[in-house]
Each structure stands twice: as C-alpha cells, then as structure tokens.
C-alpha cells in the first residue's frame, strides 16, 4: 500500500538525465546543464568567435542583470493534480512541440560555419520555431526548405528607396512560406561591444596573427570553415551594387541597415504582410499598446540579450506589466537570459506564450558542432518537463496560471 502512494500519479517523462544508452545518453551525462555546454564551447572555437556570442554591450551589466532577475523568479509549486505532461504550444495558429524557439542571430556563421542550415535542420527535427535573421549566413529560401513548417524571418530596417529592399524581403518571405515576420526595434544604433573591438572583430574582418593562431588551434571550427566557406550575408547579397564581394556586402550592411522601425513603417509592413507580424525588443508597456493598435500579432519582450542598451532593464522584469497590458489581444513572447528549461518555465509562469534562446543554441553549436542544437533543444525540453511536473502544471497553459513570486517585477 505504501509503495503505491509513493509512485507518481501520472507518468512523468521528465527524468531524462542519465537514462538510456547510446550517444544521446552519453551527452546527457557529459553535458548535463547549460554551464557544461558553455565551458565546452569556450574551449572549442576561436576566442574571438566565443567573445562575439558571449559579449554584451559595455561592461556586460545588462546581460548579467538578465541572469540575476531570472534567478530571482520563484514559482510556487502545487500538488495533487493528475494529467499527462505535454509541452506543446500553439503560436499564431500553428502547433509547436515546445515553447522554446531559436532566436535570430546575425553573422551566425562566425560562431560555427554552416550555422544557419544546422539551426534550421534542428528546428525542423524538434518541431520548434526558428527565427532566421536578416543577417544570417544562410538564405531564407534555403532555411524554408530545411524547416518548411517553422521558419520565421527577422527583419532589420533597410529604409533607402522607401524600404524597397524591406518590401522585397517581405515578398520573398511570403513566397517561401515564412510563418511570421519579426521586426527588430531595439538596435537603433550600433552598440559598443568592447570584446569585439578588442579582438579586432569589426566589419570588414581582417585576420591578425592572433586570430590566425586562434583558428589554427580550433581544429573542428577550422574544418567547418573549410567545408562551408567564410560566413557572408546570403539574404542581402543580391541587393548590393558593386558585386557580392565580402567588402561590398559588409559596406552595404554598415551603411544601409538600421536596427529599428518607426511606427509608420510598421503600419506599412502590416499592410504588406498577410501572416503573423511580431515586434522584437519591446520593454515598455506603452510600446506594446502602440504595436497592438497597429494590428501587430506578437510582442517579443527582449533586451537583445543585454547586447544593446546597458541601462535596459532585464526583460523578465518587464514581462508581467506587458502581459497585463496586452491581455488576450496578442501573443507575448520572451527572450534574454534563458539558460535552462526552468528559465523557460519562469517566463511562461509570468505570462509568456513562448520563449526564444539565442546564446544557448549558439553554445550548443560551438560545443558540439552539427549535433549541438539538437542537444540544446532536448536539454531545455527535458528541463522544462521537469519544471512543469515539479510545479504541478502539466501544460504550458496551466503553468501560465501558476503563482509566482517575482521580487524584481516593474
Ligand atoms: C551573436 C548574436 C547575434 C545576434 N544577432 C541578432 C540579429 O541579427 N537580430 C536580432 O534581432 N537579434 C539578434 N540577437 C539577439 C537575439 O535574437 C536574442 O534577442 C538574444 O540572443 C536573447 O538573449 P540570450 O542570448 O540570452 O538568449 C543576437 C544575439 C547574439 C548572441
């Protein structure tokens, strides 16, 4: 009788760590959490590439605050419920296996040559959304072929000629089945990232004896570079007059791309794009309200992972007030600082419908190459399942109703 009482009422599939055999089980043992992945990543790719991913703006304060604020969110567990664990979510009318997507990353090929294609394939296998970037190394058409059901496109502003290039990108996105457009608002100026400056990582990139040494001592990365070639900007090369050389494209990126949109341009985008439109980088509830008044479908609460304004608040602190303002009128998404499935659970408990991770997937690539993004998706999903069960919520919808102590909320 006692033995029966000690058994869980519902079978919980969350006990991933260490179970099973084969490659996946070995990885679970060797890299059981994100911090192990980060350590492996640091030792496996050139220092300038690691610093590029890791670096926040300024003295890294905003990135560190993201972490501290997430750590401070407490979820009060409830017990006694009986149900089958299910992490599926519906975003803009489409079902995804988990509320954990891949955030857009520009120049991703620097972190791991061939990154765009590898991230797209992993998103397809895991049935999660992948927001490919305007400045990704692979083209959106290629990505759409690799993950036809879950590709979203992030846009930066290209204002010249009344947004001719932006509108062309929108048409390309529609033609290849992109599910949602994500307009980034929070990079109106180029942020100062001291580590990149110190490493000479400026556009166009020039090799120095130090960077050559770093590449020569990072063999798997160098092999991936030989196989895939130097990272470019596949989405925009066609718009560059003067050929698609690296120097010409880099000059175009520097002079033409603006990392934000004004409300008028967003209203034009709303008219030009028939599917879901998301704004990324929202931190103020009144900006969320303004976006909704334009008919925008999704608000991605983000401080760019602490890479833009060093004085920006942690995005998790702003999430509850934005969720309150938005209500049921739009989908609220979250990123910045997620390093575990528990962090995903924290964001959902504070009202997010879905979350995105940038660095976590990049560290996966750096640590494990092609199989890295799969490992990260699995790790985060396993941890999310554990968090759901541990807090007595068996679905993400239930978790959104959880009681939370969030001492830092604005
Ligand atoms: C190396 C790197 C490049 C990024 N490039 C872009 C970009 O081109 N466009 C964009 O909207 N966000 C970009 N981001 C921000 C991410 O989309 C995301 O907001 C951020 O990484 C979330 O924080 P996290 O890394 O702590 O998960 C980039 C982030 C990193 C780490």
TrEMBL record:
Keywords: Flavoprotein, FMN, Oxidoreductase. FMN binds at residues 104-106, 154, 184, 280, 302, 335-339, 358-359. Glyoxylate binds at residues 156, 193, 304, 307. Its cofactor is FMN. Pfam families: FMN_dh. Its EC number is 1.-.-.-. One of its GO terms (molecular function) is oxidoreductase activity. It is an enzyme of class 1 (oxidoreductase). Residues 26-409 form the FMN hydroxy acid dehydrogenase domain. InterPro entries: Aldolase_TIM, Alpha-hydoxy_acid_DH_FMN, FMN-dep_DH, FMN_HAD, FMN_hydac_DH_AS. The active site is at 304 (proton acceptor). Signal peptide: none annotated. The keyword Flavoprotein applies. Belongs to the FMN-dependent alpha-hydroxy acid dehydrogenase family. This is Alpha-hydroxy acid oxidase. The lineage of its organism: Bacteria, Pseudomonadati, Pseudomonadota, Gammaproteobacteria, Pseudomonadales.
